[in-house]
Each structure stands twice: as C-alpha cells, then as structure tokens.
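Quick start: what a row looks like.
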Amino acid sequence: MQLSVRRALFFTLVALTMAGMFALMAYALSDGGLDWVDGLILAAYALTLPWPTLGLWNAAFGLGLMLFARDPEAAASPISRLGDNESPIVSKTAIAICVRNEEPARLRRNLSAMLADLEDSAAHDSSLKGHVSCFVLSDSNKPEIAAGEESVADDLAASYAGRIAVKYRRRAVNTDFKAGNIRDFCDQWGADFDFLIVLDADSYMSAAAMIRMIRVMQAKDDLGIAQSLTVGMPSASPFARVFQFGMRLGMRSYTLGAAFWQGDCGPYWGHNAIIRLAPFIEHCHLPKLASGKPILSHDQVEAVLMRRAGYEVRVLPLEDGTWEENPPTLLEFMRRDLRWCEGNMQYWRLLAMDGIKPISRFQLVFAILMFVGAPAWMVLVGLFSLRDLIVGTAHPLFRAEAAGWSLILMMAMIFAPKIASSIRVLLHPAERRSFGGGFRFVGNLLLETVFTSLLAPIMAVTQTIFLGGLALGRTIGWTSQLRDDHAVPVSAAFNRLWAQTLCGIVATYLFAQISLAAVLWAAPILVSLIVAVPFAVLTARPGLGLISARMGIGRIPEETMPPAALAPLHLPALVAHGKSLVGQPIKAAS
C-alpha cells in the first residue's frame, strides 16, 4: 500500500471516528434541546477527541501488522532490516551523552558498560575499531558534580586509550539547554564525524543496537534521523514498575501503527537516536522565538527541519537493546511531564514555518494536542458539576444510555494501544512467557488499568494548573531530575498535590448536589484526586518496589530473561532474594 494511501485511510478513519463520537455526545445532551452550556460542553469535548482517536487508529494499524504481517516491523518501517547485515563500518560515529547535574556514579555505571560492550563487539568486528568515539557533553553548573563527571571521563579515557576515544566537555554557560549542548558539539567536532548517536543521562544502548543503527544510516544516504523504539529499563520503584509495564504495551502497537502512516516524516524523541550530522549541522538550526526564550522541546522541531531539507526521519520500531529509565515517583513524573508541556506549547509559534511538509506540520499540532486535552477534560467536569447552578434542574442533564456509551467508547479509545498489544501477547505463548506467564500478565494488566485510571485525572489537573500559569508567564525551564528510587514524604506530596486534592473534594460536593448517580458517574475522577497524596507516597516506597519485583508485579521481558547487555548495571529489579538473575530465566506463572 502506497504511503499516500495509508495516510488518506488513516486520516479518513480518524475524521469519521471523531465525527461519530461528537454526534453521540450531542445526542446524549439533546434531551430537552441544546442550550449554551451544552454548546460549551460540546466544544470542550471536541478538544478531548483528537489524542485518543489518533491513539485508537495507531493501535488498530499496529495490531493489524502484528497479527497479519509476516514482518510487522519491516511492513511499518522499511529501514528496520537495513541493519541486519555484516557490512563493514566505514563511517565515523560519535556517541554523545548529554548530562546536567546528574549523579556521576550513574554516568560511570552506564558509560563503563556501554564502552565495554563496544570493545567486545570490536573484537569480533575489526571494522568497528577507530570508527566510534564517545563524548560526555556536560551542562552541569554544580562544581562537585562537574568534578565527578570529569573524573569519570578521565578514568575511562585512560582505560580505553588507543581503542575508543573518550572526551569530556563542559560548557560554562548553559545556552539553549540541551539543544545548545548538541549544537556546541556540532560546531566543535561535527565535521569530524558522519553520524551522531544521542543519549541522555538515563539512556542506555547495547553495542548491537548502536551498530545496527550505524549500518542503517550507511545503507540509506537520504536518511537524516533514525529513532529507536526506546523501552523502560527494569526498575525497583513501585511507580516506575507499573508505569513501565503499561508503556511497554502501549508503545509497541502505537509505534508500529504510527510508523505505518508517518513514513518518512517520523518522530525524533531527542535521545536513543542516530543523526546524519552534515544535514543536521546545515539545516537544523532552531528558529528563534519572538519571546527570546529557547525552544525546550527541540527534538520534533529538528525532525521537521531535517525533513524540510529533503532527508527522511524514520523510526525503528524494534524492541532491540535500547532503554531509558522512567521517573521513579509521581512527583518526578510530573516534573518531566510539565517540562514537555511547556516545550510543546511553544510549537504554536512554529506552525507557520515556511516549506515544512504537511505531515510535519501535523506532527507539531499533534504534540500540542497532547496537552490541550487536559484542560478540556477539566472544563467538561466543571460544566457538568455546575450545570444545575447555571441552567437549573428543570433541564435534563443527559440521556443516560447515550452518555454511558460515549464514556465506554472513550475509555476504549484511551486504552486501545495497550489493548492491542495485550491481544498480541495473549495470542502468542512465547510472548506470554516473556511477561511472566498468562496469569501474571492478566493480573498486571488489571493493576496497570487501575494505576492509569488513578494517574490520569491527577495529571489532567496538574497540566491544567500549569497551562494556566504558563498563560500568565510562569515557566518551569530545564531542571535535572531525581532518577534513583527514593521515598516521598507526605509533606512533599502534599505541597505538590494539595490543589489536586482540593479539586477532588470540591467536585465531589458539587456532584453530590446533583444526585448520587452523578457522583457514581464521576467516581473514577473524584477518587483519583482525593487520594493523590497517598498515591504519590505509596508508589514511591523503595521497599515496596523490591517486593513487587520479587512477586513479578509490573514484570517486563527483560526481567524474565535478562539480556546480557544489562548485566553490568546490576539493576535492583534484576535481583531477587539477594541473588543475581542476569542471564537466568525466571520461572513463569502458568
């Protein structure tokens, strides 16, 4: 099927689905006629539709590929098999690890393991020797951390002298944050290399994955960026364990389906990706915002500019040796999410850029819609809870049956990517075993559904409050994260989540004024907000995380058969009862 036909089919299905959902909601509200409050409800509802509808059809396309394509990854993204060869490495590649006030111990652990893996690969493939160098690009402004980073780099440079070059560079001024960090590398050393593999402080890639990506780039001269499908690294945090399980399911079908219609206008997520340096240096200078502020979410803008220059941007939808660490607590997840939110909202000012492809322009709109739905949902909840006060009780609230179907279908769309991947897992014995067995998988799926149902309203209120502050000039900027497992005190949780709790209490009171049925309809949202503080505290307890790992709660394939590439990291999640499980299968539940 031609790419233009795929895109036409995808957007037709999305448009028809959105129209159908909108019509169903209009019918649900039309008992007794539509008034101006109904009009506001429908307008807010329309803003909630794009993101779940796009997710639904990405998942549907992905599921179709997983069930019926002989090679789903190649069908979705033709570049997926270009790296499956033994062609010699003839290009020069830099591996850049971008850090800012991160623990030097983590840098030492990850970088040491990746360099050892690369050296082992070079022993089996002589063409790799002399073609890969490593750069630690620091933007740290804490002297003690910078000293630790430099010590790590110096030690590794000495250890691998003559085999793999390791260089440390620290910028004195953190101009333009990470984008500026990469641009500074390009200005100093970009001309010396063909490709750049970009890693974050929490990124980890096996040598095999890096070599595959290098060979993909060598095989296709018009490929500007190849983005890997990055999965969560096994974690011992209760929050991250359940989150990583859900993300693993959601990303699989979603990425396959998206790659199927996005084609050469694919995503770039800013890490665990490989870039062709010459066109990146020439064409991917970030535009200046009228405000003078730097672009935070630089990655998708760079993908758009690379495509404008005539180079393809594609995803490698393979779960193949490329990982990242997920935030260990709800508070850290919120910190990361709000940084993305601020960055994506900057895209409003970039939609009119000249010469960009229609799909690239849509990618920017899509990134904005990722966060617009949150305040729209809050407006919906507010209008429903205050409706009687506005128009009086004589006006019927909604047609219960139609409203019920509207809610059921919306939930199905929201969970569609996870449902699609779960179908694939449950239909294949090897997949079930990789997740710890069918019973454990279903149990984890149910737990993750409850987890997401609690998390989503909390994040919706968080994003809504933040967007309101953003409109008034409040920003969050680029701050470092706490990546290690740690407990969250009740006081810290309350300081960050008191507004969410208050919203839940007030909304419960207002819905109770309508009827008990209204409270029951809104219960998933109300309960989530009211328990936000204990939810944050309990899901952060490291001891509970280790118990969860031993019980197989949130288990992902890397924990059933830990890959050798992760062995040097000695991850707590890969240790049970004090014994390393790396390289050993864990008995699966029946």
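That is the whole record. Residues 576-590 have pLDDT under 50 and may be disordered. The longest strand covers residues 93-99.
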